[in-house]
């Protein structure tokens, strides 16, 4: 078969929508939530470093141009300006890609914003494996970089519901925040559950007696799908969603870890320095000795390629989570007769 | 306030008053440096005249209310110059003169590098270079958004211009027509490893800022009359552009044996030399 005949999988590099074709979605939830907030609170302003269109901030820019500042492709200038606006009493939402805010402008985030404990909210796109563009754009270690930064609140939302509900809470929080956003057509998942985003809180989305999946970010959607799939195998799986990675809701996590179940953490981030580390850290400090298996990205610079391929390759797809859970269970468990 | 136009002289009594303030700021700097026996003494002495112009003649502020909404904001990028800023803030009565003797000691409000959370009148935590102008942009945008006519000043060093973020900020300031922003570059031709011009020359500094869309002036930063005139001209301009004043200064200015010292960036002064420093400072001031 020639190259032209064979259909090859690709991923649209920057405008990739994560949602499947049959999925319920909301377009640009961050942008619309910001417009709504800005209409109610005149302190709210948006800034971007040449990526408004790719972080959904163009919605605010177009609806309320007077409330938006473009600084060009200059991330250090972006975060410094956000700090200055916050010093003057405004509540800036600054957007770029996660890689640029964290790797490139770390010193500005740390000293201008976090040390001064200013109400600057970084809303940054392309977290973890959400583009096949390669390591230049894949923020696989942003949470690891940022967890050591005092004063900073870190949010990894699951879906459009999380993003919409987080925006006003980030603005109300008197200190800096970093949210790894999903953009474009963002899935709606959590409104099927009795769920409301609460900054700093983890929430049990479904209970289960045998397995506990502690998940954050878009991996919560896959954890829920995996839990449903495992029901077919009569495996009873709980899903604990942890949208705020710092400060971590240790009370809820330790409560759930206290039950005798197979435990996995699921994160769209390297297994170093993210959710797995945070949960393990809390468990050991509290004397909870339980094996915890991380589902996350390897300690590697990831391949470029099509997202479905890469999600399978690195174990982040729903089917790979299912396989991983099964491999951890007593083989007899899943083979028992009806 | 006496208005000035280009080439116009500033009233002699006013110049004398500022020079006296600069002398006291230098004395204040020496008092702090003596606590530690070393520090950024050369820089404090070189920038004292500019700080005297700002804090005793040009800036609007209220030492009893450091966060007074109508104040001019003066952001010190170069946190290293802390003793210089503290010396000026003490002269401007933000805190008692005696507090200078606590400089860089335990529980002092005057840490070795200037930080906003510690000291009344300090607007930002500088020290990591190349930050001040980026923050000044946001402050300038914020003031405009509030309709507040105050000015934002940012004191940078010539070495700091090596940091690329300064030029990101310079471009943003010009693009957003921040005519309420005045950058003051202290050109003392000295950075950690040696002379700035031998490390990474940024000359022509005025030409670079102008190319980025700024209005510039360049004067002898140890001539208070020239600094006053330049600042008033820059502030009075109707151009929708940010403004930059480059001040050529001399390391150790005012203390002859320090002006001539070889190692200038982070200066050690012997225990026996402090009295001499104060003496020479007085002699040069009275000369």
TrEMBL record, chain A:
<comment type="similarity">
    <text>Belongs to the transketolase family.</text>
</comment>
<feature type="domain" description="Transketolase-like pyrimidine-binding">
    <location>
        <begin position="24"/>
        <end position="189"/>
    </location>
</feature>
<dbReference type="InterPro" id="IPR005475">
    <property type="entry name" value="Transketolase-like_Pyr-bd"/>
</dbReference>
<dbReference type="InterPro" id="IPR051157">
    <property type="entry name" value="PDH/Transketolase"/>
</dbReference>
<keyword id="KW-0808">Transferase</keyword>
<protein>
    <submittedName>
        <fullName>Transketolase</fullName>
        <ecNumber>2.2.1.1</ecNumber>
    </submittedName>
</protein>
<dbReference type="InterPro" id="IPR033248">
    <property type="entry name" value="Transketolase_C"/>
</dbReference>
<dbReference type="GO" id="GO:0004802">
    <property type="term" value="F:transketolase activity"/>
</dbReference>
<dbReference type="GO" id="GO:0000287">
    <property type="term" value="F:magnesium ion binding"/>
</dbReference>
<dbReference type="InterPro" id="IPR009014">
    <property type="entry name" value="Transketo_C/PFOR_II"/>
</dbReference>
<dbReference type="Pfam" id="PF02779">
    <property type="entry name" value="Transket_pyr"/>
</dbReference>
<keyword id="KW-0786">Thiamine pyrophosphate</keyword>
<dbReference type="Pfam" id="PF02780">
    <property type="entry name" value="Transketolase_C"/>
</dbReference>
<dbReference type="InterPro" id="IPR029061">
    <property type="entry name" value="THDP-binding"/>
</dbReference>
From TrEMBL, chain B:
<comment type="similarity">
    <text>Belongs to the transketolase family.</text>
</comment>
<keyword id="KW-0808">Transferase</keyword>
<keyword id="KW-0786">Thiamine pyrophosphate</keyword>
<dbReference type="GO" id="GO:0004802">
    <property type="term" value="F:transketolase activity"/>
</dbReference>
<dbReference type="GO" id="GO:0000287">
    <property type="term" value="F:magnesium ion binding"/>
</dbReference>
<dbReference type="Pfam" id="PF00456">
    <property type="entry name" value="Transketolase_N"/>
</dbReference>
<dbReference type="InterPro" id="IPR029061">
    <property type="entry name" value="THDP-binding"/>
</dbReference>
<protein>
    <submittedName>
        <fullName>Transketolase</fullName>
        <ecNumber>2.2.1.1</ecNumber>
    </submittedName>
</protein>
<dbReference type="InterPro" id="IPR005474">
    <property type="entry name" value="Transketolase_N"/>
</dbReference>
<feature type="domain" description="Transketolase N-terminal">
    <location>
        <begin position="21"/>
        <end position="281"/>
    </location>
</feature>
